[in-house]
Amino acid sequence: MNIYVSNLSFGVDSEDLLSHFSQYGKVNSINMVTDKLANQSKSSAMIEMPEQEQAEKAIAALNGLTLSGRPMILNRNKPVEAPVRRVRRTW
């Protein structure tokens, strides 16, 4: 299950997030969202946990927790569905 984490302090890195989320289960990956031009964090991250139950526990426990002076906002990340293609009709 993917978890979207926002409102992170610019000083938070993947190791900080790993130490918090690994308390609730295995963490497959952490991707910090960065601004490519400024090479700076955009104060958000995507965290992948393989077990949905563990991810739900992490969301319940860590949502609103203050990390480096800012409360984290956690949401389930829904998979992106492919857009419905409209059929073009030719007459």
Automatic annotation (TrEMBL):
<feature type="domain" description="RRM">
    <location>
        <begin position="1"/>
        <end position="79"/>
    </location>
</feature>
<dbReference type="InterPro" id="IPR035979">
    <property type="entry name" value="RBD_domain_sf"/>
</dbReference>
<dbReference type="InterPro" id="IPR000504">
    <property type="entry name" value="RRM_dom"/>
</dbReference>
<dbReference type="GO" id="GO:0003729">
    <property type="term" value="F:mRNA binding"/>
</dbReference>
<dbReference type="InterPro" id="IPR050502">
    <property type="entry name" value="Euk_RNA-bind_prot"/>
</dbReference>
<protein>
    <submittedName>
        <fullName>RNA-binding protein</fullName>
    </submittedName>
</protein>
<dbReference type="InterPro" id="IPR012677">
    <property type="entry name" value="Nucleotide-bd_a/b_plait_sf"/>
</dbReference>
<dbReference type="Pfam" id="PF00076">
    <property type="entry name" value="RRM_1"/>
</dbReference>
<keyword id="KW-0694">RNA-binding</keyword>
